[in-house]
Amino acid sequence: MRIFDFFRSSPPPPSPAKQAKERLQIVMAHERGGRCGPDFLPSLQRELLAVIGKYVDIDANKVEVKLDRGSDVSTLEVNVELPTPLKPAAAEAPAAAECFDLQRRTARG
Amino acid sequence: MARIIVMTSGKGGVGKTTSAASFATGFALRGHRTVVIDFDVGLRNLDLVMGCERRVVFDFINVINGEAKLHQALIKDKRVDNLSILPTSQTRDKEALTRDGVERVLAQLKDEFDVVICDSPAGIEKGALMALYFADEAVIVTNPEVSSVRDSDRILGMLAAKSRRAELELEPVREHLLLTRYDTARVERGEMLTVEDVLEILAIPLLGVVPESQSVLRASNIGQPVILDDKSNAGQAYADAVGRFLGEQIEHRFVKPERRGLFDRLLGRPA
Questions:
Q1: What ipTM was predicted for this assembly?
Q2: Are A98 and A55 in contact (CB under 8 A)?
Q3: Has residue A34 got a pLDDT over 60?
Q4: CA-to-CA distance for B95 and B64, rounded, in angstroms?
Q5: Which of A17, A90, B34, B67 could form a disulfide bond with B115, CB atoms 3.0-4.6 angstroms apart?
Q6: Closest by alpha carbon to B127, among B227, B24, B45?
């Protein structure tokens, strides 16, 4: 099967177990926050999405959030797949729209 | 001084009572004077799993309320020496568990036993809180499944905040993870969280992995703790876990899929 993966346009979805782990890590980072001191990551994630959502229509299913917790460093990786036609309302904030447009172009190479 | 161990999980149906019955039997088999208490007031089941349901006359709540003496309520196991069961009431509710009452009974048990196992009810309400409150050690029974892992994490939070040891700022309750219903074949196929995944998320030491096994239902059907079925891999996994709890170095088994012979594979037989 692996050899056919080469011809696929998108990588295969992660296994159900992997998805379970990622979902748990996210939900528990959020829940533990209230318990053992300030943990800004979940609210940072929510606010980031809110800010992006203000300018671009984002499909909640095309948002991927990864949280890696290490002993020294924790990283929050937010991947947002932007829709092809940008929201016309984005004209109110041309700078931001351009910025996203630029990123999209860069992403396509 | 006796050790008080709570079997807890948050989520129901993950194997707390099965594990409490097997752990209690395992400790007794190794010569420790052991008592196992059912804290699930109103939904008593430890008696059935231990096979002593027809011998219940008085219960934990009767003792708390002074309606019976402790020795009238304790049931001595007929198969294993050094093992007693303290059943709970089927008619009362969790409010019957008062902190003072539980403390009094535990103090009395601690004089006569080496190990006191508290079989917690599911949930995070009074029954579960009373079961974990006086614990020195906790066995967190978890299935490799999202809701169970999340609930276990919640219970770990309670142990760290609401236990007696937490309230008195003593040394924290020692936590052990017991992963039950583990299916290596499904893990292999990427359908089930791995031991490593659960350990990474809950971040507590692993006491044992009990494989998904038909012997567990068979054992509860006949009222015999599965640890007594020493031919079954679940029984062996419990025996190993008890050994580890007592400080023995025992390598983890049932974590990797068993190698099957060609013949078994051709016949589609499970390992």
A1: 0.81
A2: no
A3: no
A4: 12
A5: B34
A6: B45
